[in-house]
């Protein structure tokens, strides 16, 4: 078994083969994040589930993934990145099998929470292993491969999910979207144990366990009532939980500050919380990522339950969005880093315009829409996401000291996923509450679902407009003012 101690990574002959294992695991992880949306209506019908339970299938996965990312990244430093990666893949594979075998909605939600944890154990180790296995020039190529894989997985998810449900492979129906991970995961564990080099763990590092518990409880108090409030009729305890999340978020800051003053390890370095670009950029990233997550969950249900689309048709309808993101990725490579703030403003304006265009088309459309009726707005929205993420992350990391760059990058991914979880919760509440109100008033099914989707899109337009306004207050970044790797390059990866 190759070790980092036995030979340098520059001389390790199997690093590109090992990269294949990392790419396969990454593809499996990201595919699972997008493949589920088109199956939600089928799952709801098959398991006789409440709409809030359907929300937990997506939001629960994303929330656990967000909360566990930073501590799992640190655990890789403490116990070894290879060991954590293989353990994460194995746990993800097991939970995928359990998801496919779920006899009821509660079991499926629990298995999805496990999947989120497995993904969080796996994902930060992938980036760290790529960083360790490759030197500067090769590292750039490896990260590019990782980015391309991410894009392909995001594009493929809805299509593969819709196709698997349509062909009803081995009479498994929606369960096949989870079982598809099992052979890939088993092969990745076996191949990874042989091919991935083992790097020594860092001695003396400790995990900030109280910090993990405080921030996890804060997010649980925030997300749980937003998802479950409508089911229970918004009783007093739901508002009490929302208010209670505020002192826990404040408590997390003061706990981390106390550890910083004592010179102890922190889950999130306090210095980052005092960096203007990082804090404001984090808020912008949180809000910006909340919109596509909520959009695609409600869009799939809108098309399938509102207008009778098949899962495959619903998957095809989403394709313009990732195509737009791909186009933006190639555009970004040809642009200078001199105008990061301007690119963020353009991206936010495009996202607002794209969502507003979808809103207008939903509002004016009569009858059953075609598969690509909303393609122009989705294409603009996808281009906006791909165009905005890189300059936003670069702006946030520009003022971050080199030693904190790793923690800052990990926190960025957590912020992104937490924003997605909140976006799913809020968009779903607006969507289902509006539908229920319209149906109670005697509206037809199609009209009720149109009203629900319009309510969601209106909220998203307001959020992205707020992002555009907030981006004006980001500091301008000087050329070359980027924290990052030792060779001066900053690699921004979209997960």
Automatic annotation (TrEMBL):
SUPFAM superfamilies, sorted: MFS general substrate transporter
Full protein name: MFS transporter
Major facilitator superfamily (MFS) profile domain boundaries: 18-478
This protein's GO CC annotations: membrane
Family annotation (InterPro entries): MFS, MFS_dom, MFS_trans_sf
Superkingdom: Bacteria
Main location: membrane
Residue ranges of the TM segments: 16-42, 54-72, 84-103, 142-165, 177-199, 211-228, 234-255, 276-302, 314-332, 344-363, 375-397, 418-437, 449-474
CDD domains, A to Z: MFS_MMR_MDR_like
Membrane topology: Multi-pass membrane protein
Compartments, as annotated in UniProt: Membrane
MF-aspect GO terms: transmembrane transporter activity
PANTHER family: ACTINORHODIN TRANSPORTER-RELATED, MAJOR FACILITATOR SUPERFAMILY MULTIDRUG TRANSPORTER MFSC
Keywords carried by this UniProt record: Membrane, Transmembrane, Transmembrane helix
């Amino acid at each position: 078994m190759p070790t980092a101690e036995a030979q340098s990574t520059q001389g390790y002959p199997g690093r590109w083969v090992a990269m294949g294992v990392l790419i396969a695991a990454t593809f499996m992880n990201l595919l699972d994040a997008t493949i589920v949306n088109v199956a939600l209506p089928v799952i709801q019908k098959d398991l006789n589930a409440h709409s809030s339970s359907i929300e937990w299938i997506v939001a629960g996965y994303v929330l656990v993934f967000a909360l566990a990312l930073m501590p799992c990244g640190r655990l890789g430093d403490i116990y070894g990145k290879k060991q954590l990666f293989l353990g994460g893949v194995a746990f993800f594979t097991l939970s995928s099998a359990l998801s496919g075998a779920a006899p009821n909605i509660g079991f499926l939600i629990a298995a999805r929470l496990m999947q989120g944890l497995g993904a969080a154990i796996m994902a930060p180790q992938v980036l760290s292993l790529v960083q360790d296995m490759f030197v500067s020039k090769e590292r750039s190529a490896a990260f590019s491969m990782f980015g391309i894989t991410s894009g392909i997985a995001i594009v493929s998810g809805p299509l593969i999910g819709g196709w698997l449900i349509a062909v009803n492979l081995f009479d498994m129906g929606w369960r096949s979207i989870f079982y598809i991970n099992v052979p890939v995961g088993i092969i990745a564990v076996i191949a990874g144990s042989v091919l991935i080099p083992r790097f020594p763990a860092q001695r003396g590092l400790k995990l900030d366990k109280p910090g993990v518990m405080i921030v996890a409880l804060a997010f649980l108090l925030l997300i749980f009532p937003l998802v479950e409030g409508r089911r229970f009729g918004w009783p007093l305890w739901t508002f009490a939980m929302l208010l209670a999340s505020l002192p826990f978020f404040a408590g997390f800051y003061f706990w981390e500050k106390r550890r910083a003053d004592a010179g102890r390890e922190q889950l999130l370095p306090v210095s980052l919380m005092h960096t203007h670009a990082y804090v404001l950029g984090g808020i912008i990233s949180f809000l910006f990522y909340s919109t596509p997550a909520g959009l695609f969950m409600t869009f799939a249900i809108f098309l399938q339950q509102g207008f009778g689309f098949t899962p495959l048709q619903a998957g095809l309808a989403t394709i313009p969005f990732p195509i737009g993101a791909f186009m933006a990725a190639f555009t970004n490579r040809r642009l200078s880093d001199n105008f990061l703030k301007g690119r963020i403003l353009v991206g936010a304006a495009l996202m607002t315009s794209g969502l507003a265009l979808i809103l207008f088309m939903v509002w004016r459309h009569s009858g059953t829409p075609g598969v690509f009726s909303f393609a122009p707005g989705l294409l603009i929205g996808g281009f906006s996401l791909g165009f905005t993420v890189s300059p936003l992350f670069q702006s946030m990391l520009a003022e971050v000291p080199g030693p904190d760059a790793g923690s800052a990058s990990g926190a960025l991914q957590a912020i992104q996923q937490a924003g997605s979880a909140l976006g799913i919760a809020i968009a779903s509440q607006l969507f289902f509450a509006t539908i229920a109100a319209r149906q109670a008033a005697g509206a037809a099914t199609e009209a009720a679902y149109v009203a629900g989707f319009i309510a969601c899109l209106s909220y998203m337009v307001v959020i992205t407009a707020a992002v555009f306004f907030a981006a004006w207050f980001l500091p301008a970044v000087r050329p070359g003012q980027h924290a990052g790797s030792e060779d001066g390059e900053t690699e921004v990866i979209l997960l």
